[in-house]
């Protein structure tokens, strides 16, 4: 058993639930991380942001639930099948996690459309790559193009027995293609083709509308009280 040092952040207002404070436990920067170690930590509810790995540790609150999808057991809903059909002509290219100006420009258009009041709308090129890439993790930048136009980019970590969906951003003018949903469906299928067991989908909060979509991918599991349990769709 590896002993991993953690440190607690200060409490700050929660970005997801009103009148709540948030706090996280981070892996100490003195500890050397790797894809293999992160593959174990993500099974315990941790997530990556840039080079940092953390888990929520909020006082009096346990609403943030890490989620994962068993890719072999997944069956798309009627709505998800329509999304797949709508995007049947999309082209996909898997690239290394390196800065590309076209990716960054799309990221900024997405942030200014979706999160205009958030700090990410002012991200510099360095902020962008520091947030999404990592010096120690096996990360992929997956391009989705429609009629030779860059439509979306999904950032995906390739782990020992899973893919981990880090972040997806898309062209606001192409919202009719449901590219966020399609990116999850593509990652599920790609994980299955690689004979991986899970797709980790980040945190789910029951009372947060922007995260409610995750339980539409079934059978999804949530890490609750230190064990993985099935989550029902809302």
Give structural notes.
The chain has five helices and 14 strands. The longest helix has 15 residues, at 179-193. The N and C termini lie far apart (37 Å). It has a domain at 68-204: Aminopeptidase (3-Layer(aba) Sandwich). With 234 residues, the protein is α+β, with helices and mostly antiparallel strands. A hairpin with a 3-residue loop joins β10 (149-158) and β11 (162-170). Strands 8-9-10-11-12-7-13-14 form an eight-stranded mixed sheet. It has a four-stranded antiparallel sheet with strand order 1-4-6-5. The mean pLDDT is 94.
Summarize the structure.
The chain is of the alpha+beta class.
Main features:
23% helix; Aminopeptidase; alpha+beta; 234 residues; single chain; 8-stranded mixed beta sheet
């Amino acid at each position: 058993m590896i002993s991993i040092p953690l440190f607690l952040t200060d409490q700050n207002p929660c970005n997801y639930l009103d009148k709540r404070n948030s706090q996280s436990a981070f892996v100490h920067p003195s500890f050397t991380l790797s894809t293999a170690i992160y593959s174990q930590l993500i099974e315990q509810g941790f997530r990556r942001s840039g080079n940092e790995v953390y888990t929520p540790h909020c006082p009096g609150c346990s609403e943030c639930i890490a989620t994962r999808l068993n890719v072999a057991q997944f069956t798309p809903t009627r709505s998800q099948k329509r999304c797949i059909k709508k995007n049947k002509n999309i082209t996909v290219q898997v690239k290394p996690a390196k800065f590309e100006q076209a990716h960054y420009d799309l990221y900024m258009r997405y942030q200014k459309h979706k999160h205009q009041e958030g700090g990410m709308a002012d991200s510099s090129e360095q902020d962008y790559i520091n947030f999404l890439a990592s010096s120690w993790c096996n990360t992929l930048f997956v391009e989705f193009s429609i009629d030779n136009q860059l439509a979306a980019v999904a950032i995906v970590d390739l782990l020992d027995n899973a893919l981990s969906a880090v972040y997806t951003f898309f062209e606001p003018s192409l919202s009719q293609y449901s590219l966020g949903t399609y990116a999850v469906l593509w990652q599920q299928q790609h994980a299955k083709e690689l004979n991986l067991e899970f797709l980790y989908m980040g945190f789910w909060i029951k009372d947060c509308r922007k995260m409610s979509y995750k339980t539409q991918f079934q059978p999804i599991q949530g890490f609750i009280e230190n064990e993985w349990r099935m989550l029902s769709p809302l």
